[in-house]
């Protein structure tokens, strides 16, 4: 948009471009406001335990597959954006503190092992039954396990989207220059 404004001298055109851009951005915000983590959790909760495990496993492992070649520098460059995105969902679910704390911690630990940070290694696919059995803290109630898995999946998707967005912005900036 900066390029358009610099090139245009017509005040009416500048106002039109700004208005259209704001309308487009506000439409995106309105679409996002309709999203709710409870909607996704509700879908999972309707499945059998076996199907829940398979669905969660597919989501998490697919996202980890996309992220397995990132560096800690790349992760750190988007971590604040990821926190801001996931913070949006925290306001949508009550008594979610244990899920968030556990989910953030486990998501990072698993990802760091998958990418080989600090020479730790975890091969894909990961087995979520092992996470359920050995990795969840005692602060987490069993009925919160799938909420936590959905939170982990949300974090991974947010990381990937933020990295993708960051790469797109870098490419766009290079083209403009």
Gist?
The chain is mainly alpha-helical. Helices cover 76% and strands 0% of the residues.
Tell me about this structure:
With 177 residues, the protein is an all-alpha fold. The relative contact order is 0.13. It is globular and about 65 Å long. It folds into 2 domains: 1-34; 36-176, no CATH class. The model has no long low-confidence stretch (mean pLDDT 84). The longest helix has 32 residues, at 145-176. The protein has helices spanning 2-7, 11-33, 37-45, 49-67, 72-90, 97-114, 128-135, 145-176. Helix 3 (37-45) crosses helix 8, helix 4 (49-67) runs parallel beside helix 8 and helix 5 crosses helix 8 (145-176). It contains 8 helices and no strands. Helix content is 76%, strand content 0%.
Question: Which keywords apply here?
Answer:
2 domains
**Global outline:** globular
Number of helices: 8
Number of domains: 2
Helicity level, as a percent range? Answer: over 70%
Order of SSEs: HHHHHHHH
Radius of gyration equals: 20 Å
Report the count of strand segments.
0
Instruction: Please state roughly what percent of the residues sit in beta strands, choosing from under 5%, 5-15%, 15-25%, 25-35%, 35-45% or over 45%.
Output: under 5%
Low-confidence segments, given as residue ranges, are: none
Structural class given helices, strands, pairing? mainly alpha
Task: Give the termini distance in whole angstroms.
Answer: 14 Å
